[in-house]
Structure formats: C-alpha cells, structure tokens
Amino acid sequence: MGEKLQFSGVDGQDVYNITAPFLIGNKTVIAGRVEKREKLADSQVMFFEEKDGVWSPIDGAPTFKLEDGFVTQIGDETIFGGVEVYPSPVPDNPDEVGYRTVFYREHDLSSFEKFAVGPDRMKDIRLVSLANGHIGVFTRPQGGENGNGKIGYLEIESLKDLNDENLLNARIIENQFAPEEWGGVNELHLLEDGKIGVVGHIAYIDEQDIKHYYAMAFVYDPETHLSSPIEIIATRENFPAGEEKNKKVADIVFPSSLVFGKDGTVTLYAGLSDAEAGKNSSL
After folding, report:
1. What is the C-alpha separation between 200 and 99, in angstroms, rounded?
2. Which of 33, 87, 137, 170 is exposed most, by the fewest CB atoms within 10 A?
C-alpha cells in the first residue's frame, strides 16, 4: 500500500510532486512543490531534510518559484530543475499562464547557477548521461500532431547544447499513446546494455473532466529509436487514501523517481492528488 511522507514547517501548505531523497554536500534532501490548497500556478520548490520521520525545510536553503522540481546527475555535476510559470494573457483569458523548464547547476545548498531554459509550453525535459559520453534528452512537445504531449528524444554532446533549437527538433517516439492520452518522462536510468530505463506518467481526462495520471515505465533503445510497450507501475490505489487539491485531480500519481536499494528493494517516490507525497516499496 505504500506510505505518505510527513512534512512540517510550511504553514499548512501542501507538499507534493517531490524528488526522491538525494545528496547535496553532506545532506540528504528532498525537493518538494509547496502550494496552498486553494491556489493554482502559485507554487514554490523548497528543500527539506528528515528528522524522526518528518521532513522539514532546511534553514538557509534557497526557495525557487517553480513547480515540480527534479534532479539528475550529469557527469560530476548535479542538475536541478523545475517548471517556471509566467503570465501569458490572451484576449479571452487574461489569467492564462505559460510555462517552461529551467535548469540549474547545483554547487551547494546556497549556490545554484541557471544555465538553460527550455521552449515555452514544454514540461518534462529530462537528461541522462550515456555510455558514449553524450547526453540523452527526452522532451514533451505539445500541440498539433503531438496533442497534449508526446515524448521526443535527442542526443547532445554537452550541456551547452541544451537549447530551444535542439529541443524542438527531438525525434518523436511514435505509437506510445492513444489519441486521448498524453505522457511525459520523470526520471531516467542508464542500463548496462546501453538502453535507457524510463520512469514517467501517462494521463487522460475522462468525460466528467476528471484527470487520471498513472506512473509508468518503458525501456528505450537510442540506437534503434524503439521503445518497449508502456507498463503502468503504480496508480493512486497503490498509496493510502488522503487529501486532494480538488475532485478533478483525486486520481493522480505523479512519479518522481525509482530508488534501487542495496537490499534489492525498489522504491517509487511520487506526488499524490496534487496535495501530498508518498513512497511505495512493494510494487
């Protein structure tokens, strides 16, 4: 059934869409999206450390005006990123917002250097170091034939090549989603055979305007540009019942990471119903 993570020190706000625990310097931390229950597109990402089973904000750590933080290791660099939301009014909707993915080099908990910004209206850009020394990049373009979001792939030689032109020219992995579905990548694992293990989400909206998000996984071969079939690895029922931002997002699992323990366990960390966070080691 898994368990929910406990957070404190956020003035009653929700913490969800977390990273798995990772190291910054000598601290094991989680980055989590912090937001008031009644707010939309008004979140920040904060860093937490655990004591006695409760995760609390780290004194002196920066706070980012972002959504859905993520972290990855590229060579000897820790890369932190998230989704930046900004006003993008249109004539029939003055409250419309845009979004883009931003990337930072992490030096320590007090020093983050922004070095790249993804295309407008593109979330779920993720990176992985490849055996050939290049960097694999997964993207999620939207609109036109891509609908609400398909998954693309490209390789770049270095982080300096992480730019709009390259990201918008990623090759789409076809036949992954039905027309009413969309999906994106949350985390990547380089496998021993050079293929890439992908952890992500698959989603759709039903006739009652209810969103459904499931954690999924597949294996991608960058040599052949082929992927294995998508396998759903967790649904909301794999975690304890709990709070929700509203009824429309009650059935959401937004995965962040699979953590492989030395004892053979595999733990999935995820956001739950846009209001809480959890982990499950029994999938």
Report:
1. 19
2. 87
Parallel/antiparallel/unpaired status of strands 211-221 and 251-260: parallel
- Output the DSSP codes for 163-207: SHHHHHTPEE--SSS-TTEEEEEEEEEE-TTS-EEEEEEEEEE-T
Cα–Cα distance for residue pair 242/42, rounded to 1 Å: 22
- What residues have CB less than 8 Å from 206, skipping those under 6 apart? 212
- Using left for φ > 0, alpha for ψ between -120 and 50, and beta otherwise, residue 222 falls in alpha
- Please report, for residues 44, 128, 264, 268, 269, the alpha-carbon distance to residue 260 in angstroms, rounded to integers and kept in the order given: 28, 17, 7, 9, 11
Q: Which amino acid is at 5?
A: L
Question: How far apart are alpha carbons 166 and 155 in whole angstroms?
Answer: 9
- How are beta strands 54-57 and 6-7 bridged, if at all? parallel
Strand pairing category for 266-272 and 276-280: antiparallel
**Token output for 131:** 């055996």
Nearest to 186 by CA among 266, 98, 69, 104: 69
**Would the pLDDT of 278 be above 90?**
yes
pTM value is 0.96
Q: Which of 187, 261, 243 is nearest to 6 (CA)?
A: 243
Residue 25 predicted with pLDDT over 90: no
Residue 29's DSSP bridge partners are 22
Distance between CA atoms of 269 and 215, rounded to whole angstroms?
10
**The tokens of 230 are what?**
């998508």
The tens digit of pLDDT for each residue in 61-113 reads 999 999 999 999 999 999 999 999 999 888 888 888 999 999 999 988 888 99
